[in-house]
Write a structure and sequence with these properties.
Layout: H1 2-9, E1 23-29, H2 30-40, E2 44-50, H3 63-71, E3 74-77, H4 86-93, E4 98-101, E5 110-111, E6 114-115, H5 123-140, H6 145-170, E7 179-181, H7 188-194, E8 197-199, H8 212-225, E9 229-230, H9 239-248, H10 271-286
Parallel strand pairs: 1-2, 1-3, 3-4, 7-8, 7-9
Antiparallel strand pairs: 5-6
Helix pairs in contact: 2-5, 3-4, 5-6, 6-10, 8-9
């Protein structure tokens, strides 16, 4: 310190203080990883336990995941029971990281007797995700609070524009015709927000296959209600959906992205692109 002060007094330039290292963030799945990158920018280094096109409902953590959690400064999870395997992983890792629940403050919807964790399919609720993440990152990096807030505002504006676009397009479809069939009950928040009825052979989780009786009942319902929009999902085998659509005389539309982003070369490599892709696929199936 004495040497530094003497140099300054002699007119020698002082080197700028080094920028802090990026905050090490581990997220539970790919959609949260993208949100953290959008809000944190260069101030975060983000990894995800469950990657693109992978099903977080049935994920099995590895020893590498234990090490990754242990090395993180912040761990971001969805909550609402989405990551049923996570508590054991946190305990096994011995992590001292701050754990951020992205759905904090969001009132969950119920799918039958189960809590539906898929709140990211409502653009308005995604804005709540962003606010929660911005607050957590600013707490961990107080010196970057203003930059984080600005990035969060910019991203929130883009979400609001996406929300307005889907509402405008769907307004041209009569409410009674807005029926969609998907692989599992992942789009309930989308349906509640935008006035679309979703049917599926599975509940909000993907761990159980539907019975033959369930499939037969759904085929009858699709025929009776003249459901026009039938979709497979990126995290599930499409064969069951294709069979149901074939027996019901329906056409399978573009694949929807439910619980994971696509890879970089796919149509939904970011959360905003996932939302836009799904909305466009559904609207196109409705003819708007």
């Amino acid at each position: 310190m004495k040497r530094r002060l003497l140099l300054a007094a002699a007119g020698a330039p002082l080197l700028p203080a080094a920028a802090p290292a990026p905050l090490r963030v581990m997220t539970s799945f790919s959609i949260l990883a993208d949100l953290v990158r959008e809000v944190g920018g260069d101030m975060v280094s983000v990894n995800s336990l469950v990657g693109p096109d992978a099903d977080a409902h049935v994920y099995k953590p590895t020893p590498r995941d234990v090490r990754g959690i242990a090395a993180a400064e912040v761990v971001v999870v969805n909550g609402l029971g989405f990551e049923g395997w996570l508590e054991r992983l946190l305990t096994a890792s011995g992590t001292r990281a701050a754990v951020v629940v992205a759905t904090e403050g969001i009132q969950p919807r119920l799918a039958g007797l189960s809590v539906d964790p898929h709140a990211w399919h409502d653009a308005a609720l995604l804005q709540r995700y962003v606010a929660t993440l911005a607050a957590a990152l600013a707490k961990a990096r107080p010196g970057a609070r203003e930059v984080i807030a600005a990035r969060a505002r910019s991203y929130t504006d883009r979400l609001a524009a996406a929300d307005a676009d889907i509402r405008s397009r769907l307004s041209r479809v009569p409410r009674e015709q807005r029926r969609v069939f998907t692989a599992h009950d992942a789009f309930g928040y989308f349906g509640a927000a935008y006035g679309v009825d979703f049917l599926s052979p599975q509940g909000p989780g993907t761990g159980h296959e539907p019975s033959a009786a369930d499939v037969a009942r759904l085929v009858r319902q699709l025929r009776r209600d003249r459901v026009r929009a039938v979709f497979a999902e990126n995290i599930a085998d499409a064969r069951l959906i294709e069979r149901i659509a074939r027996e019901a005389g329906a056409r399978v539309g573009r694949r929807l992205y439910s619980d994971a982003l696509s890879g970089p070369a796919g149509p939904a490599p970011t959360c905003l692109k996932l939302f836009a892709h799904n909305a466009d696929a559904i609207c196109t199936a409705f003819g708007v």
